[in-house]
Design a protein that fits this description.
Structural class: mainly alpha
Strand order of the largest sheet: 1-2
Number of strands: 2
Order of helices and strands: HHEEHHHHHHHH
Largest sheet: 2 strands, antiparallel
Number of helices: 10
Helix content: over 70%
Shape: globular
Low-confidence stretches: none
């Protein structure tokens, strides 16, 4: 336990020193939420008002950016710098490193989520969810699923430039073809069909179900099932190819 705490402190210190991670985890989603809120707060989307739809959406973006930039990319950077190779010479085992990395990811997402809550409550006077337990379950499932995808990035990319390229290429379809920033019904039909293969689409749907109290209804089963499928496949791939050192 002590080794986990020690490495978690180190991971958090490194996290707050990484400008790119802080930018995409805290700054970009918050600014996007404020801008879209000022523009579209009177609109409704598929029967939901702006905040019912887009508080979960911005948190979905935080999950994506944390998994790809704060975890997947950062692991590649640390591996390339030889951080994990040096740690092999210490009593710290790989399970402690893995656990600390997961804790750091959850910390980043929880802080980002609270940031969106505060902006919603005090910036726009919006009510928060009446279903905190369902939302917490949805948030946990979506987070773990995208962490597994982030580990695929760190498994397949050997260099920082490769991992950054993967993250940047993935960012645009994740943000704009998932319903996280633009309503899917407002997109051309061909883009709506492409949204089916974008993993963040299902994160947005499940988070909205949790936020609005429909997580335990039949309408949420497909989205939940897809996320579980992604989690299983990603875990298998990540376990097979992931290496702490080159």
């Amino acid at each position: 336990m002590q080794s986990i705490l020690t490495h978690t402190k180190m991971e958090l210190k490194l996290f707050f020193r990484e400008t790119l991670a802080l930018l995409f985890t805290f700054i970009v989603p918050a600014i996007s939420f404020v801008v879209f809120g000022l523009m579209f707060q009177t609109n409704s989307y598929d029967g939901l008002d702006y905040f019912q739809a887009y508080i979960p959406s911005m948190i979905a973006i935080i999950i994506f950016t944390t998994a790809f930039f704060s975890m997947g990319l950062q692991i590649v950077i640390d591996r390339e710098k030889g951080v994990y190779k040096r740690l092999k010479g210490t009593p710290l085992d790989q399970r402690a490193i893995f656990t600390a990395t997961i804790i750091k990811g959850f910390f980043a997402i929880y802080v980002g989520t609270i940031e969106i809550f505060l902006i919603s409550k005090f910036g726009f006077g919006s009510e928060l969810t009446e279903h905190p337990f369902e939302f917490f379950l949805a948030l946990t499932l979506c987070t773990i699923t995208f962490f597994s995808i982030g580990f695929i990035v760190s498994s397949l990319a050997k260099r920082m430039q490769t991992a950054l390229g993967i993250a940047m290429i993935a960012m645009y379809p994740m943000m704009f073809l998932s319903g996280a920033t633009l309503p899917l019904e407002a997109l051309p039909e061909v883009l709506q069909k492409i949204a089916v293969i974008v993993p963040l689409t299902y994160v947005v749907n499940v988070l909205r179900d949790g936020w609005n109290g429909t997580l335990f209804t039949s309408g949420a089963l497909v989205d939940i099932g897809v996320l579980f499928g992604i989690l299983i496949v990603s875990t298998i791939i990540g376990t097979k190819f992931f290496r702490w050192t080159d």
